[in-house]
Amino acid sequence: MTTQDLSSLRCAVDTVTARVARLEPLLYALLRIVFAVVLFTHGLPKVLRTAHGSMADPMSASINLIQNVMGLPFAAQLAFLVMLLETVGALMLAIGLGTRLVALLIAIEMVAISYALGPTWPWIDRGVEFPVLMGFLALYIVARGGGAYSMDARQR
Fold this sequence. Notes:
Elements: H1 3-48, H2 58-69, H3 75-95, H4 99-117, H5 129-144, H6 151-154
Helix pairs in contact: 1-3, 2-3, 3-4, 4-5
């Protein structure tokens, strides 16, 4: 490659970088919304008490996990709070309302789920890799906040 080729390549990379940088606020909003949709798909079956994946009753499964695996008291009440976080919290996250608080609560939930699932890392059969990833994504959202396209930004 000649010096002129390298200069042209550098110019092309700079142009693409500048264009992508302009899209960053929109892409972050999309990331936040998709994260919320994924979370919502886990909360809605708890609300409706319908089957979800291999769970016939996700709400009962949450109560069982909290009570028998984690050994926590008030399992039914804690499962109800998890269901609220995964539905109402997910909707709040999607619109960017109370973003940092909701994302922090989700990160805490993901730590608890990761603890309950133990040190297994299978890509199938309910491994811990997904709550670990969701937890770190939630922490990123805590640090970043709602972003430009959020209700939080409009309230300033």
